[in-house]
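User: quick one
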Amino acid sequence: MTQWLAPMESYIALSAVMFFLGVVGVIARRNPLIVLMSIELMFNAANLALVTFAKLWANNAGHIFAFLVVTVAAAEAAIGLAIVVVAFRRAQYVDVDEASVLKG
Amino acid sequence: MIVSAHPLGLEGSYPLLFLIWLLPLAGALLLWAFGPRFKSFAGPIGSTMVGVAFLATLAEWHDATAISGGLAGAHQTLFTWMPGFTFGLLFDRLALIWTLVITGVGFLIHVYSMGYLAGDKAFARFFAYLNFFIFAMLTLVLSDNFGGLLVGWGLVGLASYFLIGFWFFKPTAVAAARKAFVINVVGDIGILFAIVVIVAHVGSISYGDTFLQIGAFSPHDLFIVCLALFIGCAAKSAQVPLHTWLPDAMEGPTPVSALIHAATMVTAGVYLIARCAPLWTASADARELVGVIGAVTAIAGAVLGVAQWDIKRILAYSTMSQIGYMIMAVGVGAFDSGVLHFLTHACFKAQLFLGAGIIIHNLNNEQDVRLMGGLRKTMPFAFIAMLTGVLAICGVPGFSGSFSKDAILTATLAHGHPWLYAIGVLTAGITAYYMFRLLFVVFFGPYRGNVDPSDLGIRHPELAGTAASSGHHPEETDAHHAHAPAWLMSGPVAILIVPTVLIGWIAFGGEGSPWKTFWDPVFPKVSEAGGFVMPELAGTVLVFAVVLVGFALAYLQYAAPKVLARSVPRLRTESVRMPPVLANAYYFDAAIDALFVRPSILLGRFFGSFVDPLVIEGVVHETAHTASWLGHLFRSFQTGLVRVYALSIVLGAACFAIYYVVIGAAR
Amino acid sequence: MIAFWLLSFALIATGVFTITASKPVYSVVGLLGNFVILAILYLTLNAEFLAVIQLVVYSGAILILFLFVIALLSSGVKPFDIGPDRAPRIGVPAFVLALIGLCVIVFSVVRAAVVGAPNAPEGITGQADAFGSVGDFGVALFTKNLLPFEVTALVLMVAVIGVVLLAGDEKPAPPRRKPHARDLEREPIVKPVEKLIR
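Assistant: Done. Structure below.
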């Protein structure tokens, strides 16, 4: 499928769009699971940018880095979900607005 | 022969000067710190300090009178603060005379106080204050520059405040101390102003530099300097119009009145003018002003002395009047006559006050002369003492006062001031009248101590002047009112009889007298046109005649046999018919109250009610308010909501992105 | 080119769907589609190995994890209850800021002269040492980047331990208290699932 290669700027722009979609998702949604999914979206946007630059400069360090990002994202998702489970185990509402103990 | 305008003195190291100057300070500090432990031993300690200082002064006599190569006296440099501001001690003839009086009379009064204040609970504090006063007065007199003079000036004012308000449980004493201090501050400002002008012209505060560069002053500026200095003199020496504090200062114990408000502190003004003789010699306008005010004070004080019933107030007004004489003398340029009168006055006024103190002490703090009478028989020693004092102050020939008073009057006429001469002669007569009035009412006739006060016209016994008010509170003396040996009080008085009578004889002999030759190297001769030189004998006879007239009038009014028989109703009539102008001291107090005190109080109230709460507190309040408001503002960011925190992170990231892109693009 | 446009459109569409879906399960599905499109894009960029990893790890493991947690937290048929909105319309400033950030980055990237033509070899898919292939990736991973690889293993272990510590060993149920009126309107979260598991 390499024949479908587009100019590099397009990939970066795409990555940026995905990233900011993730940002909006984090801020605008109240369900903690959807927040975590938006974070995954951001990770993937970063991965796309890394791979793009790896292609641009023929340096597979970008691939390695993306691989490590995947790993870390997996670990982070696991722990994040564990926290969500624990925090909302006996909560009445599954809503990030309820976790407002830091209010001051 | 004038050696130089005002020589700075022979430079050298004079350890005895330090002894004279600092021993009283050591005494004061010692008694302040450990006074209560010494109890009645504080008296001998204080007296010894001053006594040793007196002996040291005698030892330094020849250094003070030394003349060599254009410089006269002893000079000890202390330290230099800035160029032009060198502090030192100058012990020349003028300082010598003043120091002798301060330490000599001071010593006698210290001994007297040991008897007068025996049993007082604050016995040690009194001697600490007295020693502090001696030190302050010596600072004033021994300084070689205007700065040290001003320091001493302020410190004697402080000592006077301490001592007038010594019995601080008496509200009248506290008020009198405050009044004296505030009026003296006005004088301090005058002197400070003069110092500023002097520094502006000469660049230095020392006497020597100033007097050698009188040419640097324009006549107008010189008059301003003399006027400013004279404001200080008027305040300290109780000249019109800054005299109102002196009669009230009699609230202090009698030894205080004797030492400070008769012999030494109030003569500081005379000292200043004598010290700055070159300034006054160069400004005829200043001399005119000083002479007039001196004469006016002399006669005003004398007239008021006629109207007083408190024995100490009579003496206070007489002090005011006699200092008027001294000021008049130095004002017309007769410096040595003024200083002679200071010397004689110190002796006979101290004598009068100490004698009055004996009477007051023995009559259990009675001060109103209407409640005295006939004390010639019960207190003969006091009578002798007061008699010598009265004869001296009236200027009876042969007694000390006559030499000085005649010298002043003659010099006034010789320097071309006939009106001032006339006022002076008239005042001499009035002085004789009221002093003999005092003598007759106190010592002659029946004893009136048991008469009902209202029969004598005493309307407010609780106010100053009677035993009811000036007595100690019973809790202020030790339980067994320890009576000190009587010689503590009568000894100094007896010793003072000698100079009271005889000290004037050093001026016997006109121009060739020891006194005149003593001052020849120091004071310039002021000669003015229009002077009439009256032969000395004629002058003395004229003054004596006027004094006899005064004596006769007093005798007829107070001591003639048929008067003495009806003394109670006569005194009552006089009390009731006293003209209000005299009873209220020419309304000076009322005028000062209306012109200065009330507006100050109103100004203070304005600041207290408006400026302080609204402006000053408003600033503080608003600062606190703003801090609190900022706190609330920042607190509103802490919503506790994760989403809001995430938004702030995004905001920060956006700012970073913009910054780097835009700045990066700009480079 | 058309292919790329289609792909990018799909990417963005699935992304939007993810963040705006009403139910979490729909979001997971959208995210799945997003990952698949992304894998295709990797392939266009010669990152064969990474494309496969993306599919296996992300869509095959992480999304399943999400589904499990959704099942764990959801109360059977009813959708998740959410409380009152404490920060209403916060999406508006978020959207604006995100738009600004996006425009800034796109603008800078487009303007930058650094982005030029890719100079990686076109590569023959399937050849062992081609750029982006498994062999090439493996050599780089196990020679130059061995330390990060080992550290990543450590990270994963820590994550596992963390998850076990956090979410395992549920504490015994607190003593039965009188149910609050508020509590009665909805069924407890845990019980149906416990029934299922046992």
